[in-house]
């Protein structure tokens, strides 16, 4: 079993290069199913989740080739066999469910294992299915599977009760080749949705308004193969911003779209951080000032991202005063609290609210990465804690962070992986 060891307390210094966004790459890989030509994704982040979706496509008889030159991932789905997709990989990673929209669109058929719950919440798929039905598909659920069928999908007006990222992506990809026009209202506005639409538009799709609450998709007959570079990972960049803050350091982050991080940057400024933009894609983060307590409510974009909630909680554990974090997106996303308390944090939970009273220090302990971002929160806490922090269940971290120890080591952190 692999573990990560972090030894604090050390200042960080230097530059870090951010990888392309996991949450952009996964729906883009799923969307390659829409077009039976070669599609190349450059700068692909080599992550466990990316490997899972590539394995899934290989199992469905697609050609998936990876080249270390520019991390080019080339996918050709011309031989895809739509009837075999009921594999366990869907249960392993929820984002695999994003192949349903493209499969339904191209083959008029898709049957997948129900993705089920995961440790941060129940994560239903009702909104995805509502969208497919509105486009004319028959949906059947039984024996742990969901099956969707349609002779031809027809554009419609679809209102999402909640701006779900996955549902917006699945409906978007399902409607790109449909007859007529589809309008998604109360759509998710995350930058990764805009990136998916940009990718599809470069292939010949006709999508307007992605990245805003109303997306209009005019169906086209076919898409063509392209080469595409996804956006940078805003959550990875945000994690390194907090690393600068929690270690009272200055670091430069390369590969950042400041606009995508506006909700995080504004909160961190309130907390006492300073930012200096350098060129188009870099930012210097100065985390040396004393940090203030802040209140945070996670919300759909452009609100504060739930995927940054656990990392900022590590920082707030060490600020002067009381901070309140309200998690409105996932009902069970406070599992890292128990772990932070093991390190000396003072946190109480009341339903979806965590009350964090700052302490003067954290101390290294044996802790668990209870989910992907919670794992990052443990590394951050470890960087600021006295002594040694030993993090287990790090497979969660590998799902979403490329070479995380190496990136932190390059900044001067003492962090390494052991196999026990
Ligand atoms: C995506 C991100 C994930 C992020 C989340 C919220 C990817 C691969 N993952 O997950 O990192 O934390 O957005 O920003 O991009 N819901 C329903 N019915 C549905 C679908 C969702 O009720 O049909 C609910 C969920 O239970 C949850 C909320 O909507 O409470 C948000 O989920 P959603 O936006 O769909 O997240 P994902 O796409 O799964």
Automatic annotation (TrEMBL):
Q: Name one GO biological process term.
A: peptidoglycan biosynthetic process
- The organism's place on the tree of life at top rank: Bacteria
For binding phosphoenolpyruvate, which residues are annotated in this chain's numbering? Answer: 22-23
Keywords (alphabetical) are:
Cell cycle, Cell division, Cell shape, Cell wall biogenesis/degradation, Cytoplasm, Peptidoglycan synthesis, Pyruvate, Transferase
MF terms per GO, please? UDP-N-acetylglucosamine 1-carboxyvinyltransferase activity
Group of enzyme by EC: transferase
What is the reaction catalyzed? phosphoenolpyruvate + UDP-N-acetyl-alpha-D-glucosamine = UDP-N-acetyl-3-O-(1-carboxyvinyl)-alpha-D-glucosamine + phosphate
Q: Where in the cell is it found?
A: Cytoplasm
The answer, when asked if Cell division is one of the entry's keywords, is yes
Q: In which pathway does it act?
A: Cell wall biogenesis; peptidoglycan biosynthesis
- Lyase as UniProt keyword: no
Protein family according to the UniProt entry: Belongs to the EPSP synthase family. MurA subfamily.
The PTM 2-(S-cysteinyl)pyruvic acid O-phosphothioketal maps to 118
Describe the location of the Enolpyruvate transferase domain by residue ranges. 6-407
Q: Which residues bind UDP-N-acetyl-alpha-D-glucosamine?
A: 94, 123-127, 307, 329
What is this protein's name?
UDP-N-acetylglucosamine 1-carboxyvinyltransferase
Active site located where? 118
Per the entry, what this protein does is: Cell wall formation. Adds enolpyruvyl to UDP-N-acetylglucosamine.
Task: Say which species the protein is native to.
Answer: Clostridium taeniosporum
Name of encoding gene = murA
Enzyme Commission code(s) on record: 2.5.1.7
Q: Which CDD domains match?
A: UdpNAET
Cellular component terms (Gene Ontology): cytoplasm
């Amino acid at each position: 079993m692999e573990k990560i060891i972090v030894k604090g307390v050390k200042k960080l210094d230097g530059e870090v290069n951010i990888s392309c966004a996991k949450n952009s790459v996964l729906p883009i890989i799923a969307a390659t199913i829409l077009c039976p030509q070669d599609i190349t994704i450059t700068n692909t982040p080599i992550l466990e989740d990316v490997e899972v979706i590539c394995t899934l496509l290989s199992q469905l008889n697609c050609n998936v080739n990876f080249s270390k030159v520019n991390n080019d991932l080339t996918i050709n789905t011309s031989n895809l066999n739509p009837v075999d997709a009921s594999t366990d990989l869907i249960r392993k990673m929820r984002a695999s469910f994003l192949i349903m929209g493209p499969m339904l669109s191209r083959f008029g058929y898709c049957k997948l294992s129900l993705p089920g719950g995961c440790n941060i919440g129940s994560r239903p798929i009702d909104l995805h299915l509502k969208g497919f039905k509105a486009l004319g598909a028959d949906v059947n659920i039984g024996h742990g599977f969901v099956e969707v069928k349609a002779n031809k999908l027809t554009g419609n007006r679809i209102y999402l009760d909640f701006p779900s990222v996955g549902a917006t992506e699945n409906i978007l990809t399902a409607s790109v080749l449909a007859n007529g026009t589809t309008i998604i209202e109360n759509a998710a506005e995350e930058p990764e949705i805009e990136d998916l639409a940009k990718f599809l538009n470069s292939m010949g799709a006709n999508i307007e308004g992605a990245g805003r609450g109303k997306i209009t998709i005019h169906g086209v007959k076919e898409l063509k193969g392209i080469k595409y570079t996804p956006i940078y990972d805003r959550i990875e960049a945000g994690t390194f911003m907090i690393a600068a803050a929690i270690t009272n350091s200055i670091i430069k982050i390369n590969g950042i779209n400041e606009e995508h991080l506006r909700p995080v940057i504004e909160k961190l400024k309130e907390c006492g951080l300073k930012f200096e933009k350098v060129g188009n894609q870099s930012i210097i983060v100065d985390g040396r000032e004393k940090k203030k307590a802040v209140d945070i409510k996670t919300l759909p974009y452009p609100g504060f991202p739930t995927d940054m909630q656990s990392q900022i909680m590590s920082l707030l554990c060490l600020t002067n005063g009381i901070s309140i974090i309200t998690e409105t997106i996932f009902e069970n996303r406070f599992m890292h609290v128990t772990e932070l308390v093991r390190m000396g944090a003072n946190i109480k939970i009341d339903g979806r609210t965590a009350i964090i009273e700052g302490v003067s220090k954290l101390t290294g302990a044996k802790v668990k990465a209870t989910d992907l971002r919670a794992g990052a929160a443990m590394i951050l806490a470890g960087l600021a804690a006295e002594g040694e922090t030993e993090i287990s269940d790090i497979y969660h971290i590998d799902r979403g962070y490329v070479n995380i120890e190496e990136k932190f080591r390059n900044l001067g952190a003492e962090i390494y992986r052991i196999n026990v």
